[in-house]
Amino acid sequence: MGFNTKNIFKPSNTMARFVKIRKEDIGKAPDDMRFRGEQKMDETLIRLVDYDNDKLVEKVVDKIETILENKKTPTVTWLNIDGLHDTDILQEIGVSFDFDKLVLAGIMDTHSRPKINDFGNCILISIKMLQQDEGSGLITVENLSIVLTDTLLLSFQEKRGDVFEPVRERIRNQKKRIRTGATDYLAFALLDIVVDNYIYLVGVLGEKIEMLEETLLQEPRKSIIDEIYTFKREMNFLRKNITPAKEMILALSKLESEFIKESSDIHFKELLNNINQAVDSSETYREILSDQLNIYHTTISSKLNDVMKFLTIFSVIFIPLTFIAGIYGTNFEVLPELKYEYSYFIMWGVMIVLALSMLWYFKKRNWW
Amino acid sequence: MGFNTKNIFKPSNTMARFVKIRKEDIGKAPDDMRFRGEQKMDETLIRLVDYDNDKLVEKVVDKIETILENKKTPTVTWLNIDGLHDTDILQEIGVSFDFDKLVLAGIMDTHSRPKINDFGNCILISIKMLQQDEGSGLITVENLSIVLTDTLLLSFQEKRGDVFEPVRERIRNQKKRIRTGATDYLAFALLDIVVDNYIYLVGVLGEKIEMLEETLLQEPRKSIIDEIYTFKREMNFLRKNITPAKEMILALSKLESEFIKESSDIHFKELLNNINQAVDSSETYREILSDQLNIYHTTISSKLNDVMKFLTIFSVIFIPLTFIAGIYGTNFEVLPELKYEYSYFIMWGVMIVLALSMLWYFKKRNWW
Amino acid sequence: MGFNTKNIFKPSNTMARFVKIRKEDIGKAPDDMRFRGEQKMDETLIRLVDYDNDKLVEKVVDKIETILENKKTPTVTWLNIDGLHDTDILQEIGVSFDFDKLVLAGIMDTHSRPKINDFGNCILISIKMLQQDEGSGLITVENLSIVLTDTLLLSFQEKRGDVFEPVRERIRNQKKRIRTGATDYLAFALLDIVVDNYIYLVGVLGEKIEMLEETLLQEPRKSIIDEIYTFKREMNFLRKNITPAKEMILALSKLESEFIKESSDIHFKELLNNINQAVDSSETYREILSDQLNIYHTTISSKLNDVMKFLTIFSVIFIPLTFIAGIYGTNFEVLPELKYEYSYFIMWGVMIVLALSMLWYFKKRNWW
Amino acid sequence: MGFNTKNIFKPSNTMARFVKIRKEDIGKAPDDMRFRGEQKMDETLIRLVDYDNDKLVEKVVDKIETILENKKTPTVTWLNIDGLHDTDILQEIGVSFDFDKLVLAGIMDTHSRPKINDFGNCILISIKMLQQDEGSGLITVENLSIVLTDTLLLSFQEKRGDVFEPVRERIRNQKKRIRTGATDYLAFALLDIVVDNYIYLVGVLGEKIEMLEETLLQEPRKSIIDEIYTFKREMNFLRKNITPAKEMILALSKLESEFIKESSDIHFKELLNNINQAVDSSETYREILSDQLNIYHTTISSKLNDVMKFLTIFSVIFIPLTFIAGIYGTNFEVLPELKYEYSYFIMWGVMIVLALSMLWYFKKRNWW
Amino acid sequence: MGFNTKNIFKPSNTMARFVKIRKEDIGKAPDDMRFRGEQKMDETLIRLVDYDNDKLVEKVVDKIETILENKKTPTVTWLNIDGLHDTDILQEIGVSFDFDKLVLAGIMDTHSRPKINDFGNCILISIKMLQQDEGSGLITVENLSIVLTDTLLLSFQEKRGDVFEPVRERIRNQKKRIRTGATDYLAFALLDIVVDNYIYLVGVLGEKIEMLEETLLQEPRKSIIDEIYTFKREMNFLRKNITPAKEMILALSKLESEFIKESSDIHFKELLNNINQAVDSSETYREILSDQLNIYHTTISSKLNDVMKFLTIFSVIFIPLTFIAGIYGTNFEVLPELKYEYSYFIMWGVMIVLALSMLWYFKKRNWW
Asked: What is the model's pTM?
């Protein structure tokens, strides 16, 4: 994969990373429908898929009225809405299907925690969708809202994307389970893609972490510490998004609602299993990163110690030699050795023997 | 924002930070109504808002009797009392509405943990309100008590504040949900503001922490450690206030009481979601601070190691050179090299070669 | 407060700190009534308070028989027994009121964990009472046992104390709630004092810890580490006593017994709230102490690094200077510089320039 | 055991260590039967064991039809299928026994977390089988799936293995319990072997860790840190496989299904006990490894400190001696000592006394 | 107590410390009765105590038949079997009392985790018995199994011991509670001794840890680190045995069985309380040991820093002095100071002043 390590995990907007509230938003009504996210596309795109076991209609919707025809039919009607900035369209949808204003406010609150709300005439599911942009390699964070009734499923994305294409493909290909299933199975299929993306992204990041390991053992360059902390922060970011999603899916698998059939239990249990796998993996990588940090510090400090020990031993060997030279540099009138002819050479001999003995001693005591 | 980093998180009184009991207060009766907080305003201000879907009365109340008129009406009566030092007024209110003495004692015990108590004829909710004073930028901690009956909501603040102004605004603007809602919806609206303020303050502090990160990587000045510990302490302070509030809201969302309608469940669940978001955020920043501390220590120690290594290598290079000079400073009568004409220059040559070899060796082994 | 820091937290006997079993006590019967604590007073003192809303009798009891008169009356009879060493008296009480032998054994087992036992005809509550002796400033640990029936409350203390004086005061002062309340309210009142003392002592210790902080930032003297570890141990000691007490109070608030009226729920819930506050506070101080330790280590190591860096730089500056002097101390016959008239002064000049350049360089690279 | 430490814990394929999803697998249908593992054997081997208390048939099955004869009989029919790559065979089995497509997809999803799914007409159990290859000493990770009906048990292994041979042996040897037991007892017997292998492998790794301890205390060679981290990672790997298996077994022991008799409760409880033992052991070794790391660091740093202290003291002793020699190497015209006949020898005497005093002083202060 | 610190906590066999499975034991039947422990005594000893409130029989049993007489009587029959290696005897007992084979296998599996199993016609309780051998001071680990029916209690120990002597004593001494109690009370009495031994041993080890503290503060000798880690490991060993025992006792206190009367609840609750105390204590000592390690490291590093600082300062003072001497050791022809009569003495003066100034400066800046 040809993208840069440093910036692959840049969320689409920094606000999304750690949700912050603007001072002017404190005290807003819970059904206040102002869109406060970042507008991510120009026009709202509404795609309709209407199917049952026998027939399949797929089209792009221009007017909301055309949807209403499908409102009453027993077929599964899946409306995928890309783009949340156009409050009018959302409001029209809300009115058409008789949704509580809170449902719409919930859809537009793109900074909310993953959650599930049962409004009686519909269920609102909200989850963070993490994705890697194919072009730039950037990871984008997007809020996905799913509204579920008995024959209707609305999915709201912040921007156009083909992430649900495999599901459409399965519907087109007459895959029996999805064509005979109800809206709850469709909801499962969509959430399953979101969770698969979690596992995939943890894996992509994990692979980088595993590759780091080898570099770490071979040559711990200084920049590696930055990379470890970057990966740590990114893995934390993934975990912070996945963990509340897990809670939500757990709540979903326990939800008692007429819109979720008992036969879907096994699917939601599987979904829970999958997200648990993502959590497990991210946990494992967190521990690996923590070990890597420790290994780095141990390696660095061990290397430093070796250098300092070498330098110190080197100095220490010269200290008595310099002292001896100092002795014979004194100007005492009576200093017998100075007179002797071979003194100078004897001094050299003594020095060499002394240096070698010290080296041998340090070596023997394994200091070197 | 033009306020000083150091003192933004100074609670209004130090007693409030870590609750302490005075020796003389040990053993006081639970319904003892002495006010033990710090008097934060001169006069008690009572503001009344009385509304239903059709009509709205808003006034400042002078005499308690005027309130009693609203006692029996089916409209929602919201009394906001600023200032808790005047025991007489509180007692009068208590008697008028037939509250248990424990309710009043609970309101005056401004150091208590966030809690919820069902007294049968009313519910007492107590929570810490964290706010940033607009003028000084100081964060103030204040205890908010809410007393709830079917048609009456009393909110008690320690000092005058316009924190609930957005709610009044929504009431005035005929926002349908709040005008048709009962006291439980009003309580939700007030608590929602408190929780929004938590998220806001975590965000304000968080922004400072994120800014620290950049400084940390560029130039880890010494004072940064103080700032990290200051932010750590402040974030802990926020967490210590938010976490028990979360418990309280959880208890509130599970409370079975005639004063809390089933239709409000969805709002209290949303509230729980919001406070969970505040807890998550503060948890994230705590981990970031912990990482920052580690990065600081790594950076500092790495820098120190570089300096010491440089200095040691510098010294080590001179040691054999000084030794050589020492050799030729000896006064042996027979020391052949001294006689040779070019000895001095050869010595210099040897020294330079030696120094360069050492530099090359140290460089090669990557010690430098 | 004029007492010494070091020895304020000396429990009355070291056995009480970490409960140990004597080899000879292994296998004793659970209703074995040998007193194994430390005798803390000479004579057992029995004080009786008998009251209802209308009348109040308060006296010191000499003979157990006099108590039996109060056994049947519907008034609340509170017997406070100070001193547990006199097995005969306790046995007499046990027989008089028809208590199980286990009740008495439980009262005498002063090393037990806080607990609550329902014996059918009575409830036994056991909790650690932490107190600060007013004279010596020493903290004493004492086991408090409360035995509760419908009209009778017996409290057993290891030694004479006026810790429950405020309750007696409230009874005397006709405080309505306590005079109309039953034994369960009295039990709450006594436990409330115990818990208030927890909060008070955590506060006293906490204040010392907060004062440490300032010293720490100004001048981290060596002894501070001892103080931190002392406070850490003491705070742990408090926590180890408070945490099981919290469990006990939680169990008490959930206990279904005819002796504990539903109307007291609110009081026991408040008690739980209070002890949670004590636990929270001690937890906070534990984190503060942990931070203080880290700050101490950072400060100390930073100071050491500064010293070592200064000394190393100082040495490094002289190394090339000494080398130069060494060069001109050699005795080569041909050493042109020696002959030149101003050589000596030039050498000085060179040396000074060299030293200053090095200083400038080190300063520039911010090493100093 | 004659195998190499480094590579004993190499899983059969790296994909199995940390499950990763391929981009193209995102959005696949849950009943999609593509096999995505690594093909570990050429041909699928189906072994049939059919038994009740009286008779026993054991054969290798070529055609699926021959199995169908056993479908209706009340005897326990155990089909062990080695090899999952042949989708046709699996599909045939699925159709023959009327299994949901999800069952087959679950069997082929060899990267899934240990789990248990009740499909109504059968139960699917999935667990990781860890084994040590007898030849190479390598640890292999394999997914084991068990499908359970009232008279039928199918076990699916990724590759041929004789791990269940002891169970076959017990069946052949007329061990009463297994011959009279139903499919649930057989399932227990198989899972018991899997769990026993966990305990065995934790023990094998644990033995190596314990042996490390001795080396650590005697001579902490540098490579030991690599070994500790290798063992740490391997123990983590074991834990990450065992912990979800524990959850699964807990769920199994609580499962209410017609296929699991009440009489088997005691066995599944025992199974839970065993896997708890494995978890406990791995936990213990994790703590031991953590202690070993600390001991290593302490030992290494203590050794370094000793060396540095020795070298420093050595240098320090020569410093004043060299200074004295320097003094008498000055060329002052008036330097009285130089003239005195015994000066040189006195200097030596002074130097020796000085060096010895320093040695004595350092020794006395325990610095050496 | 006159035993050696190092080896007091040597379990009777190393296998018992961390349970390991032998490769050949994988896949054994759960009712396989091979004894896999270490034979700890030659002959199996069976002691019978048969009692009710009125009569008491105590004898050593040779033939199993003699026991069977007591099988039907309503008196409490306590059989204490020391030694588990003789499979025949155990089998005979099993058959006589009609126990499931799993009961016997459970008794012989001396490496199992503490557990409780209800077999319908009996309850099997299994717990680790930790004891200190009076002679050698060694700690022995032994598995205790208790089998309970309505009138029968069998206790199985691995080797002969008089640990239950106090219970026999209480039975002999006509202690009312035990003589009127049923088998469940007897079981409680035996388990109580086991738990008392836990508390006792934690206390014995704890005392050594507390004594360590003083040595630590006075003179941290190097070997202390070994002792701390030894104590750490031993305390962990105790904890690892006590914690699962606590789980077992919790399960026991919640067990609904005809053999455990409601009247015993209070005793099992007390037992739980006691083992909680053991767990608390061990937890406390673990924290103390952790603090001790930190104190040791702080002390050692602080001492090292002092030494290094002293030595560095010592060197630093001589560096400029040696430089000055070097200056006047140069052989420049023109070096005015050399000519001046008092130069030498002035040099000394300057040197002394310089050295003192440096000392004063270092002292002033508190470096020394």
From this structure: 0.84
